[in-house]
């Protein structure tokens, strides 16, 4: 390893090969979003180019949100728009992106017995069902440590270890919650600005990803991220949530009417 490389070891050769397939797929989407170059692959170890910039901070939320939207737009062009939210989506030979619900349902319900959260078990099940009707996107962990703000290349997305399918907005909600849990409260204005950039870069209609959805997905992420409080995260989401718990409940119980998936002119 040189100062210019970032080496990561995986549990076995197969896990490393999965990451190589994820990386190749993401790069070949030609989204304009930058990923570090993969320099070497030896058994269960991968070596990427090392990016010099700092990881993303609160001031970078909109920039990173735009990159996520850009990625979704390219993935839709590459066929992801036709994916079924809860069916593994093949990207490269044997490699598939897992569906949204299956890897999460049990973990969410278990987390809800341990963490304070305005959502109920019924809300979780309802939103897991609703997700199947929402625009499908890819989900790659969007915590701020996984976006490096390169001085000359903009936001570079690292850590492609786990990719799944997820409803539009799910990754943006992760970015917002983990930014807040890392650095302290994120304002509503910052969230709205980031959401606007994300939707615009994706090219879908705003009503397919309203703020209410972000509010619900943010609670999903809080539940799933809560165990890392005190390690990566200095702030409790319950103490710094951008909106009130009552607003979350209202968003979760407002069953947004969803239209069946249809082509959108701007994405042809
Ligand atoms: N190519 C890279 N160049 C520079 N820094 C990197 C690179 N890849 C990863 N990093 C930094 O190292 C951290 C750890 O790498 P990675 O995200 O792959 O592992 P992780 O197990 O998910 O750790 P974490 O939870 O801290 O993100 C990243 O969060 C990022 O800040
Ligand atoms: Mg990471």
Structure description:
The protein is α+β, with helices and mostly antiparallel strands. The chain has one domain (54-260): Aminoglycoside 3'-phosphotransferase, Chain: A, domain 2. The protein contains 9 helices and 9 strands. The chain has helices at 13-28, 61-77, 105-112, 121-131, 170-183, 188-202, 211-225, 237-240, 245-253; strands spanning 5-9, 38-42, 45-49, 89-92, 95-97, 136-140, 147-150, 154-157, 163-167. Strands 1-3-2 form a 3-stranded antiparallel sheet, with helices on one face. Helix 2 (61-77) packs antiparallel against helix 5 (170-183) and helix 5 (170-183) crosses helix 7 (211-225). The relative contact order is 0.16. Bound molecules: adenosine-5'-triphosphate (ATP) and magnesium ion. Magnesium ion binds at residues 141, 145-146, 159. Residues 10-195 form the Aminoglycoside phosphotransferase domain. It holds the Pfam family APH. This is Aminoglycoside phosphotransferase domain-containing protein. InterPro entries: Aminoglycoside_PTrfase, Kinase-like_dom_sf.
């Amino acid at each position: 390893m040189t100062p210019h490389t970032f080496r990561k070891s995986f549990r076995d050769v197969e896990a490393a090969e999965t990451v190589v397939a994820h990386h190749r797929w993401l790069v070949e989407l030609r989204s304009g979003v930058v990923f570090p170059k993969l320099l070497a692959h030896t058994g269960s170890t991968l070596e990427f180019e090392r990016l010099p910039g700092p990881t993303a901070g609160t001031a970078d939320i909109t920039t990173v949100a735009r990159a996520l939207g850009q990625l979704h737009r390219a993935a839709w062009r590459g066929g992801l728009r036709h994916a079924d939210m809860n069916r593994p989506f093949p990207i490269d030979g044997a490699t598939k992106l897992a569906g949204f619900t299956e890897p999460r349902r049990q973990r969410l319900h278990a987390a809800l017995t341990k963490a304070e959260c305005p959502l109920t078990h019924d809300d979780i099940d309802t939103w897991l069902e609703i997700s199947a009707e929402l625009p499908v996107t890819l989900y790659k962990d969007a915590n701020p440590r996984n976006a490096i703000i390169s001085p000359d290349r903009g936001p570079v997305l690292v850590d492609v270890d786990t990719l799944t399918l997820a409803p539009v907005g799910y990754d943006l909600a992760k970015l917002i919650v983990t930014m807040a849990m890392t650095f302290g409260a994120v304002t509503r204005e910052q969230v709205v600005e980031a959401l606007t950039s994300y939707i615009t870069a994706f090219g879908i209609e705003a009503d397919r990803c309203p703020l209410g959805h972000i509010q619900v997905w943010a609670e999903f992420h809080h539940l799933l991220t809560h165990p890392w409080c005190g390690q990566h995260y200095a702030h409790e989401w319950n103490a710094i949530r951008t909106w009130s718990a009552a607003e979350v409940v209202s968003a979760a119980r407002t069953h947004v009417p969803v239209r069946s998936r249809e082509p959108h002119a701007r994405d042809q």
